[in-house]
Design goal:
Elements (H helix, E strand, L loop, with lengths): L21 H8 L15 H8 L19 H4 L2 H16 L8 E4 L4 E2 L2 E2 L4 H4 L16 E2 L4 E2 L1 E7 L3 H4 L4 H29 L8 E3 L8 H9 L8 E4 L1 H8 L7 H10 L9 E4 L7 E5 L5 E5 L4 E2 L1 H5 L6 E11 L5 E5 L2
Parallel strand pairs: 1-11, 7-14, 8-9
Antiparallel strand pairs: 2-5, 3-4, 6-13, 8-10, 10-14, 11-13, 12-13
Length: 337
């Protein structure tokens, strides 16, 4: 039985469409819906092209890098392979989805977000009598633009150096690049949570008495979040150790969960996330549903011309992203003196 994916013409120009990725272009030419009820159901258009050229990218039988370059058309798949593996490494970093309320796709470098800053009177839960005016929530655009930043790494390797390497091993190196880009975006997010996005909305900084972390200080910090809920704690390494040493954190069930899954649930009910991007002695509490907006200017971008033409020397792999504060009161910073 002949399938349509075997006859799709692959060319370098499929990467150059404005606002349309290679994967989306390929999906338009070879829709996955047409394969429902066939042995190829569950594969996307890119995976079907790998099957077409018999390229195995993982497992004990993974092919060598040079397998992509056996034909002119199969070489066109290589940049998308690189992009996907780098994206996988970025997603494995794993913290950003737990601190962002929403991700906005935006084609540009300067973004203007919206904000709603209710007054104390507007926060009151008032009953609306018959014929009375309904309380209002005012939305407005932010005064200053949110700047997006390009983060990335340069892939420096000759084709001769990697052509005989297995694709699963090469993927490990690419995932490390993705993880690095993810950490850079996280550092940008932490900066915005602490100091704002340029619209006079830095987080409230709380400095408890004493230089040692105490459970009382955490309780006081937690109590300041009303009407928001402190459901996420982002901490530095030293603060993580200080919290683990508190008697209240030594509940047997908490320890058992931490030893079994690596996830530590705090007695305050918040998810605890450690990052080396956090300054020492600093803890950020936030309501992840209202605190931060991630603005994605692009997904993983690779210099496809160089990769297709085997010119890997100094091929850039980048991602553009920025962050905007949504509700300033939904995040606060605790700093030990």
């Amino acid at each position: 039985m002949s399938y349509h994916y075997e006859n799709v013409r692959l060319e370098k120009g499929m990467y150059g469409r404005s606002g349309c990725s290679f994967a989306r272009t390929l999906e338009e030419l070879d829709p996955s819906e047409a394969y429902q009820g066939t042995p190829l159901e569950g594969m996307d258009a890119f995976q079907r092209q790998l099957k077409r050229f018999d390229i195995h990218v993982k497992g004990p039988g993974s092919d060598q890098v040079e397998k992509f370059f056996h034909t002119t058309e199969s070489a066109v798949l290589f940049p998308e392979f690189v992009s996907r593996v780098v994206r996988q490494g970025l997603e494995e970093e794993g913290i950003l989805p737990h601190i962002t309320a929403v991700t906005t796709r935006f084609d540009g470098m300067d973004y203007r977000s919206i904000a709603s800053v209710p007054t104390e009177e507007e926060k009151q839960l008032r009953r609306v009598e018959e014929g009375a005016q309904i309380p209002r929530t005012t939305l407005r655009t932010q005064e200053n633009l949110v700047r997006l930043h390009k983060r990335g790494r340069m892939l420096v390797a000759s084709y001769e150096a990697i052509r005989f390497q297995r694709l699963d091993l090469f993927s490990v190196m690419l995932r490390q690049i993705g993880a690095y880009i993810g950490r850079m975006h996280l550092q940008d997010a932490i900066e915005v949570l602490r100091n704002g996005d340029g619209n006079q909305n830095p987080a409230e900084v709380i400095r408890p008495a004493g230089k040692a972390l105490s459970y009382e200080a955490l309780l006081d910090f937690w109590s300041r979040f009303d009407p928001y809920s402190m459901n996420t704690l982002l901490v530095s390494g030293d603060m993580m150790l200080a919290m683990l040493k508190l008697p209240e954190f030594q509940n047997p069930l908490t320890g058992l969960n931490f030893q079994g899954t690596g996830a530590l649930t705090t007695p305050l009910g918040a998810r605890l996330l450690r990052s080396s991007a956090m300054p020492a002695g600093t803890l950020i509490g936030l309501d992840k549903h209202y605190a931060l907006e991630q603005v994605s200017g692009s997904e993983i971008l690779v210099e496809y011309d160089k990769l297709i033409d085997r010119q890997l020397e100094r091929a850039a792999i980048t991602s553009i992203s920025g962050f905007a504060k949504l509700f300033p009161g939904a995040s606060k910073v605790l700093v030990l003196s």
